[in-house]
Amino acid sequence: xxxxxxxxxxxxxxxxxxxxxxxxxxxxxxxxxxxxxxxxxxxxxxxxxxxxxxxxxxxxxxxxxxxxxxxxxxxxxxxxxxxxxxxxx
Length: 89
Known about the structure:
- The protein is mainly alpha-helical.
- The protein has one domain.
- The protein is built from 3 helices and no strands.
- α1 (3-24) runs antiparallel to α2 and α2 (29-54) runs antiparallel to α3 (58-83).
């Protein structure tokens, strides 16, 4: 793969990560969930690119795990937030 394409992709992912962090640190719960999901996708993509550059086999497995655990964590967090605080009941 062309070296400049890899550099452009990594720089684009860094800018995407900053926007995901900006969303994740807002006060609304929906923004936090969107930022967390976006950050999981960005980190997994970055790991796949690093695996392509350095030929590390297990990094792709870690990226796949991140892509699976990111949405599962988002769903679990939203279910927990939907139930509310048990002290309020």
